[in-house]
Design a protein that fits this description.
heterodimer; A: mainly beta; seven-stranded mixed β-sheet; B: alpha+beta; eight-stranded mixed β-sheet; two-stranded antiparallel ribbon; 5 helices; 10 strands; about 40% strand
Chain lengths: ~375, ~190
């Protein structure tokens, strides 16, 4: 019997021993730990100085005022030093019944206001930052010249379909259900430094707002291609790592458009809600370290060949489709739906498109017959 | 898989039977890039694939068209996106705009297979063009694209016309490539 070969990919790797890289997001720092040393999540690996950069705030959008008029609601003048939490702007609405206020997200100097875009720019002040381990693990390597540390740890890993941005760490926060559209209303100032888990699609406006609030990253099932290109630096080369960084890391798990995050990934994200995570957008990978101290037992006894490297990716392989295989549909309009192969009709069926192909019956929330090539095996 | 990362959704839209929102169309193109092996289910899926292939071929003509040898190479994988060979060849011809006699080949993992030949005639005035294929006479009205079955690997053709030219001549005999596409005679202006 002829084998029906289809693509197969690991989407979730649970509780693996892996190496992770912890480094200062900006600038360099001095590392205090040594190779072989065991660390806990709260341990400080080193100290460094965050170089002065810029923060942007979409104040016109926030105040609900035209960009040309929003500057008059500023409570501080350009060039003035402001401190985190200080009132920057405020506007009374509906005869004073409603008031919109904007606080400074960081210490800095009000640098400029763009009357065309309504964006206020704050030049941040250099400050000392401490690099926390965030994980239970063993220091594998200290890269003193680049201010980075490689730690062997136990973690679950989610491999997305695409992403952008450098690696950022933060607490995971699941916003809503797997199929909700994420707009500006769901992204809040208190999400600063967090990795937000959206639903089926994240809008460009929500991403811009997240950037202005200094959110570390966003995970979504889908995104518009045009929006993704903007976030990825203008262009998109399939299969290439996107080194460009616009100030936020993005991970897309399913594809383009509004596609709910698959249940295999979403259930794991919910389990790790409010826990520490590392999002490498460029590699489309999320690392969810174990917060169980007992994980040190497995980390200590792991053999070198069992440890995943720092930049482990999930390659696409080919596997024969068999009854009972867990699959996801990769063609619209059912893109992202998951189920189990219940039957395979090995006699080719002529489709309305003119293609003649074997169909598989996939049982999920319902039963659906799909060309076998429009499936991808979910490898575990 | 063609390089479709930089193609314009607006140009693809012309090939669609139903107009589509630019975001939705962009997303569909993006998903074809992410999942290039998917099989079209509906006719609309084929229209989208045709539009994408047309744009991809137009962007990188040298990947598919050897102008010196007058050969168009269609990668076999394109047939999974557009199962109708004639529609596929038409999209290639439209994108590349060849003139004279151009042979079509299917590029497979094992080598190349003959598909047929496109005969693009230079029409001077309206009327009918006479073409003999293996001594059998065919007439094609100007402004038409006609397909003449010719499954053998090599075909002898003779072109004769007062109202059109082939390769700059009003009378010419040639041996061309045959195959599943046969002879496609294009007398459009």
């Amino acid at each position: 019997m002829t084998q029906l070969l289809i693509n197969s990919r690991i989407r979730v790797k649970e509780e693996a021993i892996t190496k992770i890289r912890r480094s200062f997001l900006q600038g360099k720092g001095k590392i205090h730990v040594e190779a072989g040393q065991e660390v806990s999540p709260g341990d400080i690996l080193g100290e460094g100085h965050e170089v002065a950069g810029f923060r942007t705030l979409a104040i016109a959008l926030e105040l609900g005022a035209p960009p040309g008029q929003a500057a008059k609601y500023l409570h501080c003048r350009l060039g003035q030093t402001v401190y985190r939490g200080e009132l920057l702007a405020g506007r009374d609405r509906f005869f004073g019944i409603k008031k919109r206020i904007i606080m400074s997200p960081a210490d800095g100097v009000l640098d400029s206001y763009d009357e065309k875009t309504g964006i206020l720019r704050i030049r941040s002040l250099p400050k000392t930052v401490k690099l926390a381990s965030g994980v239970y693990g063993i220091i594998d390597q200290v890269q003193a010249s680049s201010g980075a540390v490689v730690i062997r740890t136990k973690a679950s890993i989610i491999y997305g379909i695409l992403g952008s941005g450098q690696e950022r760490a933060g607490l995971l926060r699941v916003l809503d259900a797997a199929d909700t559209l994420v707009g500006t209303r769901q992204v809040l100032p208190e999400d600063r430094g967090d990795i937000l888990v959206g639903g089926s699609q994240v809008s460009l406006e929500a991403l811009k707002q997240a950037m202005s609030y200094n959110v570390a990253g966003i995970i979504s099932g889908g995104i518009n291609l045009a929006d993704f290109k903007k976030i990825a630096g203008g262009e998109w080369e399939p299969g290439k790592k996107h080194e460009g960084d616009v100030g936020i890391s993005l991970l897309v798990t399913e594809g383009f458009g509004a596609v709910p995050i698959g249940p295999d990934i979403f259930s794991l994200l919910k389990r790790y809600n409010h826990k520490f995570a590392l999002l490498d957008g460029g590699q489309a990978r999320l690392v969810l370290p174990s917060d169980n101290p007992d994980s040190m037992i497995d980390i200590r006894k792991a053999k070198p060949d069992e440890v995943l490297p720092v930049d482990a990716v999930s390659p696409i392989e080919e596997e024969p489709l068999i009854v009972g295989a867990r699959v996801r549909i990769v063609a619209p309009p059912q893109l992202g739906k998951q189920g189990t192969v219940e039957a395979i009709d090995r006699t080719a069926t002529l489709l309305p498109s003119g293609a003649s192909v074997c169909l598989a019956t996939v049982a999920g929330q319902g039963k659906i017959r799909v060309p076998y090539l429009n499936l991808e095996i979910i490898k575990t | 898989m063609p390089d479709i990362a930089h193609i314009s959704a607006e140009n693809v839209r012309e090939w669609l039977r139903r107009p589509e929102d630019s975001h939705l169309l962009g997303n569909e193109i993006g998903n074809r890039i992410l999942y290039p092996h998917i099989v079209p289910v509906l006719e609309d899926d084929v229209s989208l694939n045709l539009g994408i292939i047309h744009e991809a071929v137009k962007q990188s003509p040298d990947r598919y068209f050897d102008k010196t040898a007058r050969r168009i190479l269609i990668p076999e994988i394109f047939l999974s996106g557009v199962p109708d060979l004639q529609k596929l060849a038409k999209a290639f011809a439209d994108a590349l705009g060849p003139f004279g006699c151009t042979a079509f080949f299917l590029k497979t993992a094992a080598g190349v297979k003959n598909l047929g030949t496109l005969v693009k005639v230079n029409v001077i005035s309206e009327g009918k063009v006479d073409l003999w294929m293996n001594r059998e006479k065919h007439q094609v009205r100007t402004g038409m694209v006609a397909a003449i079955p010719a499954s053998s690997n090599r075909i002898d053709i003779k072109f004769e016309s007062e109202i059109a030219e082939l390769l700059g001549r009003k009378n010419i005999s040639l041996e061309v490539v045959g195959g599943p596409l046969g002879l496609i005679v294009d007398t459009t202006i």
